[in-house]
Amino acid sequence: MTGFGRAAATFREKDISIEVRSLNSKFTDVRIKIPQNYRDRESVLRKILMEKIERGKIELNLDVKSPGGEEEYTLNTTLLKGYYKELSKISAELGIEKGDVIPAILRLPNVVYPSGSTVDEKEWETIHKVLEEALVKFTEFRRTEGAAMEKDLTLRITNIQKYLEQITPFEKARVEKLKVKLLTNLEENFSKERIDQNRFEQEVIYYLEKIDITEERVRLGQHCKYFLEQLAEDAVLKGRKLSFISQEIGREINTLGAKAYSSDIQKLVVKMKDDLEKVKEQVANSV
Questions:
Q1: In DSSP terms, which residues pair with 113 in a beta bridge?
Q2: Which phi and psi angles does 33 have, rounded to 5°?
């Protein structure tokens, strides 16, 4: 599930802002973008994120600026020379013009960074408060998105339950249709006198057993009910369980379609599959 939270505050002459973003992922992947002179607290920020966010591709962006943009910067001459030397070497090997590469090198990470190697505790307290506020907004964003997803999933599963109920009127008709078809086939190939009615009834019963969808209907109803129960559970991580249940729902719907022997039931099966596909798409974003 995606998430976003942003917060900002002012500390002395600095404007501090933090953005926390996340994308769906089965694993926890934390990426932190902060100014060079704040690197000594990166592990602290990472720990806070992992405690607050269960899973996903998480990105934190810490931006610190002075209102007038008058920060002092330090040039990492050793790193700059190293880049320049390697680029010059590659240019000579490839026989291409080196050109003015200095501006490009200056834009590379850590070549130019804000001066000042330490950050006092008061400033870190402010940063921590801003991060907590951003995480609160992040959680609210996810909660809102989760509520919308729950509403949509409930609608889709409820639709499947309604379609399942609509199958009932067509069940008797499909039985009569099967009897007529079997009898017609027999009469076209054999005279009525040669048809054994007892044997005919046995054959009808045999085919009725093959196309009987009672078990599938019962299981499908149970799976839908279980899905809604798990969806209503107050659990942080339930995407995998919902994904498994949706797979079971899909199996029963497919079997219903295969044994339908009724165009009316097939139409309902198609509608079920359409709603189920939307369910799977939604659940995939929370796994």
A1: 74
A2: -115, 110
